[in-house]
Amino acid sequence: MSWRLEVAVQTPAHSALGDVLSYASRESLPPGTLVRVPLGRREVLGVVWSGQPAAPELSDTDGPAIKPVAGALDALAPLGEAWRDLVGFAARYYQRSLGEIALAALPPQLRDLSAVQLARRLKRQAVPPEAAAEAAGAAHAGLPPSAEQTRALARFEAEPGPFLLHGSTGSGKTEVYLQAVAALLDREPGAQALVMVPEINLTPQLEARFKDRFGSTAVVSLHSGMTHPQRLASWLAAHAGAARIVLGTRMAVFASLPTLRLIVVDEEHDPSYKQQEGARYSARDLAVWRGRRENAKVMLGSATPSLESWHQSRPAEGDDPGGRYSRLEMPTRIGTAALPAVRLVDMGRQPARTVLSDALLEAIGQRVARGEQSMIFLNRRGYAPVLACGDCDWKSECPHCSAYRVFHKIDRTLRCHHCGFTERVPRACPSCGNPDIAPVGRGTERLEEHLGELFAAVKRPDGSPVRIARIDADSTRKQGALQSQLAAVHAGEVDVLVGTQMIAKGHDFRRITLVAAANPDGALFSSDFRAPERLFSLLMQSAGRAGRDAAYLAAQGATAEMWIQTHHPQHPLFEALRKHDYPAFAQRELQDRAAAGMPPFAFQALLRADARTQEGAQAFLNAASAAAEGLERAELVTRYPAVPHAIQRVANVERAQLLIESRSRVALQKMLWAWQPLLHGLRREPEGKGVIRWLVDVDPQSI
Ligand code: ADP
Ligand code: ZN
Ligand code: ZN
What we know:
By secondary structure, the chain is α/β, with parallel strands linked by helices. It folds into four domains: about 5-110, PriA, 3(prime) DNA-binding domain (GIY-YIG endonuclease, 3-Layer(aba) Sandwich); about 125-330, 3-Layer(aba) Sandwich (Rossmann fold); about 340-380 and about 445-595, Rossmann fold; about 605-700, Alpha-Beta Plaits. About 30% of the residues lie in helices and about 20% in strands. The protein binds adenosine-5'-diphosphate (ADP) and zinc ion (ZN) (2 copies).
């Protein structure tokens, strides 16, 4: 008997190959089995999607014979139906091929292992069941929950969800996740929980908390900072059902978890849950879908939820039946630590070119003198965003991008943050020869230098000089650098910390009593309608780094403060921030979004095209738009004209995009599906000739 198997393999994104390829097999392999199959001249990993008996003579008469499967990795249990459904849904929803999503969801090392190597690997990996049970028993008891935590946990147990846990920074959300997982494992020792976090650099702290609570064999991590063998080991432990808890970044949403019962998405508003290349999936949205499909409870948590989730969790009111999510509220910080007082500095009243106002410098100086820590945050790395000539109009433009190259003083380079093009700083203006070229504006590197001068005379309580440190993508390039720099802050070896948004998120710094945003105004008037939402959340997160330890504050006799330097102190965003009033901010934003028919009241997708010329990119998009006329449901979808991307040219490639929008998600999806073949076809038309690549971004997070 011979079998014809449909196998998902990774095919080039825009090849004409279909979703699955057919292969012949002498045995029937169940769906979900990993196989090695020939593709072109290579042998690649694939996942069996379906199979049926095939008469061998059929292939002889029906064109070329299908190739046989090269081998099955059948030491591994097949990937379950729920997992395959998740992959199938993600492929459909985000307009990608099944094989691309399926293979990207597997640990890379699986691609290189032969059946024999894998079998050997599995033997080594196997943990005797008694050892796993023992480990789970070693779990530490949790802290006695606060009244708010108790209420949240009780509703979590009683209701079906999905849940949005809206809790202030430091209100004990992580403790709620821990206790929810503990309750689950008490009830059902074989269950699995998936806990997702946005950033790798936050994982060590959280990982330690989970391992401390549940024992180190029960918890495995999955993120891109791990080596391939580590990732494979974690993945196998999850797939075998040996790991109780998988902690990971967005990629973990695709982990194979046969007994998944609970999914936590911490900091659910974080943009990093949206993959920004290839298949542009939202791990948060997939988590909600997966939870429903697998009957696992889903808890999204944040101090500043995305407006989508906030709207989805609105209570019923009048004719409005309310959203699908249950909202759990934890407004109070643990230990009754007050949220920091927000102080706005009107930069319009400061002398021109003031970097840090005198009042702020004074406040930081006092804290240094008392031995407390301060944090200044500026969302721009490097020394200065532009280098300019005072005589002519030369500026440090990147020759390959529509952007300036940033001046990095530390190695005297001009670096493009978009394409990476780097050169040594010229001695004189390349255009007129003037030796006097000067930095314009300020990045973290320059701020750090400036602070050193300003605080030269300030002394710590023991009379020693102030210690200033900087954490950003430049300072943390080396392996392990971030960990050691964070450790120095935790150990109290830093008095003033300067950094980008890397330092604003998540870290549980205990001795920081003042946080300042040096120049957050840019986002107030951005062309991206999500910019205010991002800014608000970033400032709330930053504020959340100050005064986390009530006992420390009391012992110091200090109050926690968040300083914001702005030219627009009357802006309602800052007004809401001053009151720590996320609901007020959200209500205003949602009103604006409703009036303008924007998400969450509408659904969007972007068609993006890269080409040698801007005209070429736009011609393709406009032709695509014309071709969409008359497609199924197209009348329910608004198509906007093609426009240049916010950064129009990167690495000599011109970028353009076209927005489509609909009040109906179904209509948008239907139209996108009908559109795909037309888009592929357009590549062969004159309008598509100049196009290097194109893609569809469903639910784009930046416009
Ligand atoms: P969040 O995740 O909301 O920022 P955490 O869960 O990290 O908050 O809690 C903030 C701090 O309060 C942590 O140091 C944590 O150990 C402590 N904490 C949380 N819950 C309790 C509790 N029930 N009793 C005592 N301390 C708690
Ligand atoms: Zn010049
Ligand atoms: Zn560049």
